[in-house]
Amino acid sequence: MKTFAELGFPGRLIAVEGLDGSGKSTQIYLLKRWLEVQGLKVFFSEWNSSELVKSATSKGKKRELLTPTTFSLIHATDFADRYERHLVPLLRAGYLVLCDRYIFTAFARDTVRGCPMDWVRGIYSFANLPDITFFFRANLEVSLNRILSGRPQLKYFEAGMDMRLSSDPYESFRIFQGRLLERYLAMSTEFKFTIIDANQPIEAQQTLVRQLVAAKIDLKSFAREKAVHIAV
Q1: Do 181 and 19 touch, CB atoms closer than 8 A?
Q2: Which of 33, 118, 159, 162 is the most exposed place for a label (fewest CB within 10 A)?
Q3: What are residue 72's phi and psi, to 5 degrees?
Q4: pLDDT tens for residues 123-133?
C-alpha cells in the first residue's frame, strides 16, 4: 500500500485516529479551521457519515441487531462510498483532505470484535494510505473523563457492551478501549503513525500538529486560486 503522495496525486490526505475521548475530533477540527483561514483548499470527511448507509447503521445500533461481521461490512460500504465519490476525486483535484478516522479504525475495532484481520484488511485493500496519520494516545481514564464531561453516560457500542465484557459499562469501556489501544500500537510502526500525547492540553497538541503538517506538506501549493479581474 502506498500513500497518495507516492502515487503522484496532487492532493494530500491527513487522517486522525485514537480511542473514543482521545480528542482526535477536536484536533482535526482545529487543524481544518487553521488551514481554511490560510485560504487553502480543504475537504473534511468523518467516519460513518455516508448518506448511503448512515440511516441503516443508526437503526441497527438502536435495535442492537448488528453482528461484528455486519458492523464491519456496513462501515466498509460507508467508507467505500465516501472514498470513491469524495476523497479520491478531491485528492486528484489538489485538495487537502482531512479524515476523522480512516481504515485503521476498522482494522482495530473489527478485529477486537472478532473479525479475522486478513479478512478486514482485504475488504479495504482498495484504499491507499494517508500521507500523514496522527494517532492521539490518551490514558483510558483521561478519555473516559472527557466523554463524561460532555454527557451523562457512555454509549452502548463505545463501551463495548455488545461484547459482554462486563455488566458495568465503565469497566467494559476500560477493557474494550484497552484492547483497541493494543491494536493501534501494534499497527503504529507498520503504518508509520505520528503519535501525539493526547494527555497534553488541547493548545499544546494543536501547536505540534500544525508544525508537523507544515513541515511535511507544502501548504502554499494548496492555496485557492484568486479571481483575476480584467479591466475592459
Answers
A1: yes
A2: 118
A3: -60, -45
A4: 999 999 999 99
